[in-house]
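Newbie here. two chains, one complex. Structure please?
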Amino acid sequence: MDIQKILRGKQEQFETYIADLPRMESGTLRDAMAYSYLAQGKRLRPSLFLLAAETFGADSQDLLPFAAGIEMIHTYSLIHDDLPAMDNDDYRRGKPTCHKIFGDGMAVLAGDGLLTEAFQMMISIRDIVEPARLLGALEMAASHSGIQGMVYGQSLDIEGEGKPLTLEELKTIHYYKTGALLSFSMASGALLAGAKEDEVKAMDFYGRKFGLAFQITDDILDATGSFETLGKPIGSDQKSHKTTYVTLLGIEGARSEARKAMKEAKVSISKISRDLAVFHSLGKYVIERDR
Amino acid sequence: MDIQKILRGKQEQFETYIADLPRMESGTLRDAMAYSYLAQGKRLRPSLFLLAAETFGADSQDLLPFAAGIEMIHTYSLIHDDLPAMDNDDYRRGKPTCHKIFGDGMAVLAGDGLLTEAFQMMISIRDIVEPARLLGALEMAASHSGIQGMVYGQSLDIEGEGKPLTLEELKTIHYYKTGALLSFSMASGALLAGAKEDEVKAMDFYGRKFGLAFQITDDILDATGSFETLGKPIGSDQKSHKTTYVTLLGIEGARSEARKAMKEAKVSISKISRDLAVFHSLGKYVIERDR
């Protein structure tokens, strides 16, 4: 199974759908949102959402608006994270960051707009999904991306800045900051496709572990990759004396930690009686990715 | 009818409910959110929401979580609006602004957290409201507070900064920036209580006009009020050479414009066959308020 090809396929399906988003009158706010939202990205979260939905029998084409919402949440978090008040990053996805082009104030609003529009997009499938099920998925969106999820993780990240962290603290930050949105993507795809509660929970757990492995390889890439493949400056973690899996465990130790996380992820979904070949192959992808 | 007393009653009902919000583990993020969310405020939007819901026959006690969500959206918009990247305000509700106490980065996250938690709170009444109706109210939340509403208005406001505006331009900015959230508060209260589509629309229109009148008196208060009653520095509009209803129309001209808006608001709800005494009295309140 060529997992890279499958992910590229999902990415293309998604890119075609979002080409004219966000839907609003033209102007600076729209330009700022579109600048970041339509920038070349891996589209990993919506792709995983679509793959999870297909795994549980849904026609992923119907669920594209919800996928678009997930990527809006991800994009808003990047825009706010890059602000001078937060990580103060100048490059993202190979281009200057949103605030570098549109100013800090408009970047704050572009993020706010994307987060709110994300809910608008997710709610917009209300005619094709059972309302109570959609409400469950929306509840999951809020809890995983908010103060019990991603935003909480970002606050821990800010507070930990400049301090040496233990492995346990680092894992906690990433469990919320990166893991929550990835697990939401997979669990909500399953839920909207009609999966049972324990299947949704298994996908959620899988997503958390996948997120951990993904974050570890992110740290490895920051230490070993290049600007050309990553679209952002490399070595930035080292420069800012940030604790990462690489500083704590070394390259090889970090890689083995990522492998362990993916093994646990696979075990968690082993009881689901669906064709899970795609999710089994994701482990290979996440360990070996070079961007 | 003593409308001030009625509003105080709703405010107290609301304050009692939100005392232990937001629900999350303690830490800096929670502190920053609670600092702004629990600061003494008029609680106008949740109060109007509760009054609208009661007008159409709902038990407002049941809908308090939704009201809490509305005020979270309002509070997040104030926190982000006060940031140095936006209006750069030092005082709000009689206290230093959120970023002055917790830093710019944490203030960005406190706003993001409140916006996301707002949806969580609104969704949490899903067991007591018909799911399709709740989805309608959530759709209204996203459209009125996002890029077709409040956030759009804030982007116009930023772009208009430092430029002289026409009365038409000023009205457009406030239609979105202030009017959208006020109209959402009243229309969603009606919708969740079971009001018919045309009644919801009438309440929405009422809210837009009420919002206009409210913004006009805000400008009047900025020119004539005091720090003690407003909890923020006065004369700030004049200092920043901002176009306001007062600079365009003078105090008396602005007051007459506010009266005209409230007259139109009243007409819009005249066909609703419910006891609307509260909403008829609101006109007097908004014109004569001193804080």
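Moderator note: The mean pLDDT of chain A is 93. The longest strand of chain A covers residues 91-92. Thread marked as resolved.
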